Amino acid sequence: MLMKRLVFHLALLSLTMLMIPLALADPLPSWASGDNKSAIIDFVKTTTDPESDSYLPESRRIAVFDNDGTLWSEQPYYFQLAYALDRAENAPADTLSPALQTAVNERDLAAILEGGNEALLEILDVSHSGLSVEAFQADVADWLAKARHPDKGLAYTEMVFQPMLELLSYLRDSGYTTYIVSGGGIDFMRVFAEDVYGIPTQNVIGSTGNLEVSREGDRLALIKRGDIAFLDDGDGKPITIQRTLGVRPAMAVGNSDGDVPMMIWATEGEGPRLGVLIHHTDDTREVAYDRESAIGKLDQGLDEAASRDWVVVDMAADWRTIYAPDLQASPASDATP
Question: Does a structural domain hold residue 310?
């Protein structure tokens, strides 16, 4: 009898020792220790602890993320624009104006931006107008498999931020549902969102173009047409969240002024709320930019952050790794987990 009790207690002790490392495991290993990492972890812990005053039932654990500049890089131009530029470079003659075609061929971003939204829409239309949704997405998948970033030489899907992948996983493991809410095209992002981020296609919210139903015999197809039906940026973000989800998210993460309305709307709701801004400060491992940038401008957001108690992530200081460790693993200033 004594021997059985001894065996039982030894087994229990062994099990406890095995569980200790799991309990102490760092959910965000690529984040340097500090106030920002602690604030995120504390928010998740208190909103998932039934004994906490900040506890949220799983139905209210909703976190929304911008995509460009928040989950992956966005310089020197948005990656969907890189796709559109590649397709416009080989467009049939006279599809674009001669000046715009020259700017496209030379990747002259300043000249393209001088043309405003009209020029950008012209370029984007070339990449998809007249294609079925399936044909467009197959072409995007083929492009993502072959294209490389002009500066880093990496595949675009390799330029995903490792710390954000950890945050997405940590939230889902804690009962949160994660969504993308982006100004990028919804059909473009749905090609890779599940494989890259673990976010299913139905949880991707983005800008939508005009669609047309086409019937050929017994077959029905959705054909993409030109122009934007709804731009999911700025004030459009809280509108699409309300239309799609019907509730304010408990957590909103962005990186630019286009995300500010979404973050204000989310964090002004009742109960526990968290806003997180990704500030691109690392000119060595990525690109440093904010108030003056034509892409991913962060000006109003920096001004709003302090008064609204948002977490402002300093990429150079807060992230030990930018991309996956096997691609780039330079430590941040604080390399302590």
Answer: yes
Q: Please state the domain count of the chain.
A: 1
Is a pLDDT exceeding 50 seen at residue 335? Answer: no
CATH number of the structural domain spanning residue 286:
3.40.50.1000
Residue 212: domain span: 28-318
Question: Which two three-digit tokens encode residue 133?
Answer: 């949704």
Q: Is 337 within 8 Å of 34 (Cβ atoms)? A: no
Rounded-to-integer distance, Cα 123 and Cα 98, Å: 13
Q: Would the pLDDT of 7 be above 70?
A: no
C-alpha 266/C-alpha 260 separation (Å) is: 10
β pairing state of 204-216 and 219-230: antiparallel
Q: Which residues contact 195 (CB under 8 A, 6 or more apart)?
A: 157
In 3-state terms, what secondary structure has residue 53? Answer: coil
User: Residue 48: left (phi > 0), alpha (psi -120 to 50), or beta?
Assistant: alpha
Note whether residue 232 is domain-resident.
Answer: yes
- Find the largest Cα–Cα distance for the chain: 92
User: How far apart are alpha carbons 126 and 329 in whole angstroms?
Assistant: 38
Which whole-number Å values give the CA distances from 115 to 68, 88, 106, 325, in the listed order? Answer: 22, 15, 15, 39
Q: Is the pLDDT of residue 293 over 50?
A: yes
Residue 22 lies in a domain: no
pLDDT in the model for residue 332? 52
**DSSP code per residue over 100-139:** HHHHHHTT-HHHHHHTHHHHHHHHHHHHHTT-BHHHHHHH
Q: What is the reported pLDDT for 130?
A: 92
Classify residue 331: in a domain, yes or no.
Answer: no
Per residue in 79-105, pLDDT tens? Answer: 999 999 999 998 888 889 899 999 999
Alpha-carbon distance of 240 to 250, in angstroms, equals: 16
d(C-alpha 81, C-alpha 112), whole Å: 11
Distance CA 124, CA 88 (A): 8
Cα 191–chain centre separation:
14
